[in-house]
Amino acid sequence: MSAIRFNRRVVRYFLIAFFVVLFLYVLMTGGGGNSKSSTSAIKKKPWMTTGKLGNFEPKEIIEREGPGEGGHAHHLKPNQENDAAASLSAYGMNMACSDEISLDRTIPDLRMDECKYWNYPEDLPRASVVLVFHNEGWSTLMRTVHSVINRTPPQFLEEVLLVDDFSDKENLKGKLETYIKKFNGKVRLIRNPERQGLIRTRVRGAEEARGEVVIFLDAHCEVGTNWIPPLLAPIYYNRTTMTVPVIDGIDHDHFEYRPVYQAGQHFRGIFEWGMLYKENELPDKEVQRRSFNSMPYDSPTHAGGLFAINRNYFLQIGAYDPGLLVWGGENFELSFKIWQCGGSIQWVPCSRVGHVYRSFMPYTFGKLAEKKKGPLITINYKRVIEVWFDDKFKEYFYTREPLARYLDMGDISEQLALKDRLQCKSFQWFMDNVAYDMREKFPELPPNVHWGEMINKATKECIDTMGHAAPTVMGMSPCHGWGNNQLVRLNAKGQLGVGERCIDADRQGIKLVFCPLGSVEGPWHYDEGDKTLMHKETRKCVALHPQSNNLSLMPCDPINTYQQWVFKEIPSP
Ligand code: LR7
Ligand code: MN
């Protein structure tokens, strides 16, 4: 009897010990088991230590006191208001405030706790951190450099490469050249002989960079604790993976460092059919694919500014399309190209970098924009969708941006040839396999039945957003023929809108509102005969008040010209 009990106890202890060992093993290997490919078989995977700090974690936590330290807001004195206002309007950020904050200031460690326990290979590739800049403020530019130098293990930092996109600010000339000498060659400066815009300037940076990996940052960033190993590791295992840090916000007025998302919450980049960049909560499929919530995850696209990529791979896939000008759309071009041509994009929760979101864009697009007719960013989008979208999806873009059909996007034959040469997959493949969460947020768009200016028959004026952001009431103004705030679209499902926003009605009048997410339908019925626009729910019609010039719903009166609306397509610009 006792012998049997004894044996049972031994078995029980043995089983417990077995599971403890198994558990520790799973924990230490990151649950991944064996390696991905034959080359990576010799490369050790990152692993989670049990209770011990990861191999590149800083050994001590630095604390400092002073303005803005710890990422706190710094408030200027009332008598500095003029300086603050002047710098805000020159730079889109309060440089008077920034100038009082140390270039070496500390920022909070906003990572998930788990991040501190990851170990990474000791032989990660070396990176060139490339900062392109055009007329940036001195202290925000240099704080970016300082934060990279201070918080990057030197063995992984080949250089910080500053690429000046033809700035004309005096302090970015000789003073900058002298200042960077103190970094003993770690910081290098090259200059464009003429303005190239950020897109071409980044390509030049990648061509000139000496590191195996290039990491692009905007010239007003601060990198977080142990930011670099988690960005480099996925590239080390697979050179066709591009990695993106989590981008926190730095206030443009008082420089407070704020988390974009709480630790552990994950979002990824998608887009609206008018090519507006959006972020969407990580779909369950991606959450479940990973064994730890701090592990990198796939993202269809990225915001544009901050990412790491193997330098040769970036150049091999044609870097950015050289036909994209100055600013905008390049983030989509690179994302579609990478995914469709066999690479991948991962967002990395354990790497956090702060970025100053400006209050407005302080620079113009210069000579490059003057040469182009029409809105340059939309032209960039058109190039991107014409190269990477399948025909069906191109229509969604033109439904949202009808004027884009008439814009001259230049020659895209080289891009199409590249797509062919790299044997890239279709956009449908991308939508089904990568951006599958787009369907619920931004379903496929029904065509427009009308678009253009929406003109009142009585006054001959146009319905207009008056330049206000949603939610706001719509107004009336003389038709100007430029589109923009007067460019209205009515789709086959009764949705009326301007750009990405929708038009609806309530007691206050006819309003510009956010479109309901996940729906392409709307409340309107347009009568092609009477030219009235009826709200299906209330069965009332959009009417203009002759005296006040206000818009509201009124009982339908089809012979009243104040209730009659005609759509006029706008000729090509
Ligand atoms: O002509 C120019 N030449 C330049 O060198 C214009 C700009 N630049 C530099 C500029 O000095 C800065 O360092 O390029 C960098 C980016 O310009 P910003 O900071 O004016 O751009 P942004 O932060 O408003 O815009 C986002 O979208 C851009 C165009 O698509 C770029 O991809 C930016 O890098 C990108 N920024 C981010 O992704 C940071 C996260 C915020 C978001 C969204
Ligand atoms: Mn920026």
Automatic annotation (TrEMBL):
<keyword id="KW-0472">Membrane</keyword>
<keyword id="KW-0430">Lectin</keyword>
<protein>
    <recommendedName>
        <fullName>Polypeptide N-acetylgalactosaminyltransferase</fullName>
        <ecNumber>2.4.1.-</ecNumber>
    </recommendedName>
</protein>
<dbReference type="InterPro" id="IPR035992">
    <property type="entry name" value="Ricin_B-like_lectins"/>
</dbReference>
<keyword id="KW-0325">Glycoprotein</keyword>
<comment type="pathway">
    <text>Protein modification; protein glycosylation.</text>
</comment>
<dbReference type="GO" id="GO:0004653">
    <property type="term" value="F:polypeptide N-acetylgalactosaminyltransferase activity"/>
</dbReference>
<dbReference type="GO" id="GO:0000139">
    <property type="term" value="C:Golgi membrane"/>
</dbReference>
<feature type="transmembrane region" description="Helical">
    <location>
        <begin position="12"/>
        <end position="33"/>
    </location>
</feature>
<dbReference type="Pfam" id="PF00652">
    <property type="entry name" value="Ricin_B_lectin"/>
</dbReference>
<keyword id="KW-0479">Metal-binding</keyword>
<keyword id="KW-0333">Golgi apparatus</keyword>
<dbReference type="GO" id="GO:0006493">
    <property type="term" value="P:protein O-linked glycosylation"/>
</dbReference>
<dbReference type="GO" id="GO:0046872">
    <property type="term" value="F:metal ion binding"/>
</dbReference>
<keyword id="KW-0735">Signal-anchor</keyword>
<keyword id="KW-0464">Manganese</keyword>
<dbReference type="InterPro" id="IPR029044">
    <property type="entry name" value="Nucleotide-diphossugar_trans"/>
</dbReference>
<dbReference type="GO" id="GO:0030246">
    <property type="term" value="F:carbohydrate binding"/>
</dbReference>
<keyword id="KW-0812">Transmembrane</keyword>
<comment type="similarity">
    <text>Belongs to the glycosyltransferase 2 family. GalNAc-T subfamily.</text>
</comment>
<feature type="domain" description="Ricin B lectin">
    <location>
        <begin position="451"/>
        <end position="568"/>
    </location>
</feature>
<keyword id="KW-0808">Transferase</keyword>
<keyword id="KW-1133">Transmembrane helix</keyword>
<keyword id="KW-1015">Disulfide bond</keyword>
<dbReference type="InterPro" id="IPR000772">
    <property type="entry name" value="Ricin_B_lectin"/>
</dbReference>
<dbReference type="InterPro" id="IPR045885">
    <property type="entry name" value="GalNAc-T"/>
</dbReference>
<keyword id="KW-0328">Glycosyltransferase</keyword>
<dbReference type="Pfam" id="PF00535">
    <property type="entry name" value="Glycos_transf_2"/>
</dbReference>
<dbReference type="InterPro" id="IPR001173">
    <property type="entry name" value="Glyco_trans_2-like"/>
</dbReference>
